[in-house]
Design goal:
single chain, about 230 residues, mainly alpha, about 75% helix, elongated
């Protein structure tokens, strides 16, 4: 086990336990991966709710922010200072939108080392063999799928970013411009990575992103009816 794998083992070993339990119960590695992904997304739901509330809070003081942007349109340095003062006054953290991704990244990295070297993190021999099972058109989930799954994952990522962009708040330090760029760049990167990484990891990303799309659509409907306080 490498030093990196030892660090990731803090997350990878418990993930291996959960995945083994699901496989023993379901007896299908692909479906176990899907259930595993949904469980992780469900655990991240409170973080997602926090992000939505933060977004709603930003919209509340949007007029103040737009006024500052007009007033200091030719003085970016002063504008940034005034925006920071406004965020502090409103108890708003502009970096909070990155929180779900920051939390998810260690999970993805740990899952990658788990799938790449299962024998280091899983003690069940049957489960170690299961990582090589086929699923749907994929002959071996431990190997990359050359096209179909990576493209599906890329399309799902594009839709997810598009939904986020339609809900985007006014440009905060160039975040809207960055989102527009990421809307196209990130899906391409997902396709490229999906063609190189184990299919199990790409399946995790695809299912997780589809779950997030459904979650976003449902939350939008709920926001229209209830709103956030």
């Amino acid at each position: 086990m490498t030093t990196y794998e030892r660090i990731m083992s803090v997350i990878a070993i418990p993930m291996g336990w959960v995945l083994t339990f699901l496989y023993d119960f379901i007896n299908n590695y692909g479906i176990a991966l899907i259930v595993f992904t949904i469980l992780i997304r469900a655990c991240l739901f409170p973080v997602y709710i926090s992000q939505i509330k933060n977004s709603a809070k930003l919209k509340e003081f949007q007029p103040k922010m737009q006024e500052l942007q007009r007033k200091y349109a030719n003085d970016k340095e002063t504008l940034n200072i005034k925006l920071m003062e406004l965020y502090k006054e409103e108890n708003f953290n502009p970096a909070s939108g990155c929180l779900p991704l920051l939390i998810q990244m260690p999970i993805i990295l740990a899952f990658f080392v788990l799938i790449r070297n299962p024998i280091a993190f899983i003690s069940d021999p049957q489960m170690i063999m299961a990582v090589h099972e086929s699923f749907l058109w994929i002959p071996d989930l431990s190997q990359p799928d050359p096209w179909i799954l990576p493209i599906l994952a890329g399309l799902a990522t594009f839709v997810s970013f598009s939904l986020t962009q339609t809900m985007a708040n006014p440009d905060v330090g160039g975040t809207v411009g960055m989102m527009k760029m990421m809307r196209f760049f990130f899906p391409i990167m997902i396709v490229w990575m999906g063609r190189a990484f184990p299919s199990a990891l790409t399946l995790y990303w695809f299912i997780g992103t589809m779950f997030m799309i459904g979650q976003t659509l449902l939350m939008n409907k709920w926001k229209e009816r209830k709103g956030f306080k």
